[in-house]
């Protein structure tokens, strides 16, 4: 009996894209694969375990170096019969700044597909509204190599990716209202998704309302603050208001954050390689926050936790955080 595939315990709701993506649906919760420290074997094993407990949406990027082990984990899960076909999975990857040039976009996506051992992505995102001198993928981008993106031609190449069947849908990440509005002003295929930092400590009300009005699905990254990573913070998980709400519901702070995002209509990507926490992060669909909880969450002081000063350069297009985020700080 030990080898019999485990049927997923959780029924995960889905967000629906616009007709430009054929009305495709994306599971509201995805597993992130940006790990610190990075361990290929641990990631591959975590992917298999995540599928076993019910995850179907996985988020990667060329920057993360996780495409190869993610692909191996997906192949293993298919081999084990944990999913019956690739079509049951939703895979997102992202275009890095060094490839954010019109003639590099399609080759970059094809490279990601080779690493993932896949024939297509479900979603391909422009990782940042910034280009860089072509070459080695890495973070931070050297300040003297940061370049203004030719948004119109890069987005046209992203549209080609969808038309060629290399990805089912396209979108952006880390785009402010102003930068997203610029894309929408000339896009033939508008972005399906904008993936940005969101948590109860940085709720992004203005951006969320703008995206809703434009039929762009919002995905939150670091909804728990990315605690334990070099780039993250413990401010979300250690927030006293969230701890108080979690205690009242007999839930974890993580579950409160994810439930809050779900009730706001936000999709989200969360990373844990711990089996029990993977399960806990899925146990958010059968209870609700109260109006009193919302009153408390609404009073939490707002601050962008990951401002990304690394993307600001005297030589590049963004000379300040104000310019990078168009005042949304």
The main pleated sheet reads as:
8 strands, parallel, barrel
Q: In total, how many beta strands?
A: 12
Overall geometric form: globular
Percent of sequence in beta strands? 5-15%
Mind telling me the C-alpha Rg? 19 Å
Query: What's the helix count?
Result: 11
Share of helical residues: 25-40%
Strand order of the largest sheet: 3-4-5-6-9-10-11-12
Give the low-confidence spans: 1-9
Helix/strand structural class: alpha/beta
Characteristics of this structure?
single chain; 329 residues; alpha/beta; two-stranded antiparallel sheet; 12 strands; disordered N terminus
Protein topology:
Elements (H helix, E strand, L loop, with lengths): L13 E3 L8 E3 L1 E4 L7 H14 L3 E3 L7 H14 L9 E6 L9 H12 L6 E4 L4 E2 L13 E2 L3 H13 L6 E4 L3 H10 L6 E5 L7 H9 L3 E5 L18 H10 L3 H11 L3 E4 L4 H8 L8 H8 L22 H5 L4
Parallel strand pairs: 3-4, 3-12, 4-5, 5-6, 6-9, 9-10, 10-11, 11-12
Antiparallel strand pairs: 1-2, 7-8
Helix pairs in contact: 1-2, 2-3, 7-8
């Amino acid at each position: 009996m030990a080898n019999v595939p485990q049927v997923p315990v959780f029924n995960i709701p889905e967000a629906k894209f616009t007709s430009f993506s054929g009305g495709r649906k994306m599971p509201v919760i995805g597993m992130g694969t940006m790990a610190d420290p990075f361990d290929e074997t641990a990631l591959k094993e975590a992917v298999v375990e995540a599928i076993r407990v019910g995850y179907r949406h996985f988020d990667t990027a060329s920057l993360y170096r996780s495409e190869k082990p993610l692909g191996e984990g997906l192949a293993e899960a298919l081999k084990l019969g944990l999913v019956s076909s690739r079509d049951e999975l939703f895979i997102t990857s992202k275009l890095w700044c060094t490839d954010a040039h019109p003639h590099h976009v399609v080759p970059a996506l094809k490279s990601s597909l080779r690493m993932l051992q896949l024939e297509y992505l479900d979603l391909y995102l422009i990782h940042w509204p910034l280009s860089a001198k072509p070459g080695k993928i890495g973070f931070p981008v050297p300040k003297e190599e940061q370049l203004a993106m030719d948004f119109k031609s890069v987005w046209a190449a992203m549209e080609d990716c969808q038309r060629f069947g290399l990805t089912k849908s396209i979108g952006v990440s880390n785009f402010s209202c102003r930068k997203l509005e610029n894309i929408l002003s000339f896009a033939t295929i508008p972005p399906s998704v904008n993936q940005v930092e969101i948590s109860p400590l940085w709720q992004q009300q203005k951006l969320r309302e703008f995206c809703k009005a434009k039929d762009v699905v919002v995905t939150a990254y670091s909804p728990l603050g990315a605690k334990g990573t070099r780039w993250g913070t413990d401010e979300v998980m250690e927030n006293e208001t969230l701890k108080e709400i979690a205690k009242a519901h007999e839930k974890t702070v993580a579950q409160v954050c994810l439930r809050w995002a779900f009730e706001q209509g936000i999709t989200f990507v969360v990373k844990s390689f711990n089996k029990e926490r993977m399960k806990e992060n899925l146990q958010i669909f059968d209870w609700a926050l109260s109006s009193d909880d919302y009153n408390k969450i609404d009073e939490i002081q707002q601050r962008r936790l990951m401002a990304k000063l690394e993307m600001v350069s005297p030589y590049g297009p963004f000379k300040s955080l104000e310019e990078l985020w168009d005042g949304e700080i």
